[in-house]
Amino acid sequence: MPAPSSSFSTVVPPDDDVESRQRFSEVLSDLSSRPSAAIRIGDVLEAFGDRAFGALMLLFAAPNVLPLPPGMSAVLGAPLLFVTAQLMLGRPTLWMPRFIRERSISRDFFTLLTTKLSPILHRTERFLRPRLGALLHPLPERIVGAVCLMLAIILFLPIPFGNMPPAFAISVFALGILERDGLATLIGWLAAIGSLLILAVISSAIFAGINAFLDQLWVILG
Fold this sequence. Notes:
- It holds the Pfam family ExoD.
- InterPro entries: ExoD.
- Keywords: Membrane, Transmembrane, Transmembrane helix.
- It is a single chain.
- By secondary structure, the chain is mainly alpha-helical.
- The chain has one domain.
- It has nine helices and four strands.
- The chain has helices at about 25-30, 40-50, 50-60, 70-90, 100, 105-125, 140-155, 165-180, 180-220; strands at about 10, 40, 95, 105.
- α7 (about 140-155) runs antiparallel to α8.
- It is globular and about 65 Å long.
């Protein structure tokens, strides 16, 4: 791994030794219990190591399903774009520019996220296990990366309540990658299709509302 002063951080690719590792929820709890005032993105990278792709996707997507304070979506969104883009490109290792590694989340907010997500994660992790490995070969994972990148871009669009469905889909994909569970990946595909349909309906309603408003305005001014 490069020295902390280098521009990029590299994380080794995942292997098959999953039994002795901490679950995602356990690593998240360890991070939130640190005495530092803030949790750096670099700290998260180091904590998850060779599981960085799935772990970082889940960490930065799942909070978007919840109501967030102003500005937090920018902190969480930029790393998500980097991770999903590299997954799409089929990179065997994950790197982050220094300016993203140095971004931080306050420990109080990180602890709040952990408190809200942990019960859901604990219940979900009981059902996750390595299976349907053909769905997690390099090519299928690259396709998942492309879909997740598209969904991550949608997260930034100013669509009311439009960030929740794609964030949920990315989170499910991330769980599949993290635990090498092809069934979770299948559910992720269903969630992705469903989120796109929901966004299409929401967008149509917004455009219809705007057009109706403009029509009324034109009548009043005319």
